[in-house]
Design brief:
With 211 residues, this protein is of the alpha/beta class. The protein is built from eight helices and five strands, in the order βαβααβααβααβα. Strands 2-3-1-4-5 form a five-stranded parallel sheet, sandwiched between helices.
Length: 211
Amino acid sequence: MSKGLFITIEGPEGAGKTTIIGMLATKLKEQGIKVIITREPGGIPIAEQIREVILDKENTAMDSRTEALLYAAARRQHLVEKVVPHLHEGSIVLCDRFIDSSLAYQGYARGLGIDEVYSINHFAIEGMMPDITFYFDIDPEIGLDRIGQHKGREVNRLDLEELHFHKKVREGYHLLLERFKDRIVMIDASQSLEDVFQIALSKLVKVINHS
Ligand code: TYD
């Protein structure tokens, strides 16, 4: 059994996940808590290489099932090579995206089916689900607008999808909230960064204190 806590952060583009994860980790470290930040797809060299293939804007021919399988493959390698060892050392692992991204993006928005995508991911993760998931909810029009203002941010193949696709991603997440009521906690990410951070921090502290 692992001793750490596996916490995943989810949400559509522009929800502020990555910034907030950094702020949460800094806060926990100040309190002497062992914490690491990582991300999907990527986090370790093999998975970062898979990420390049998935997100390359030139790969317009990529089939949806290929896409889902590549995310699952990157997930598997990242889990065994990085997440599990850190959990065994007793760290809190804050992971920017995990299985729910595949269920919302590939399962629902791409139309492959949430159950179908869950089944290939079940093979990949062997039941290693997060202890808790924070879902940052935002209207995709606001989220995409925020991304547009980040001039330095790399635009990837999924960012180029139409607004309709991003709306479906959000609908997909809302279905997952129903389905995994005990695991997924929603945070309204349309508020200011500082407010979102404070809400996320107080929820995170509660989870740590009860673990
Ligand atoms: P990234 O630049 O990390 O986006 P973000 O900052 O929004 O997290 O790119 C990851 C992209 O991959 C993002 O568009 C979401 C998508 N994705 C999936 O479609 N399925 C998945 O399983 C994962 C992990 C990500």
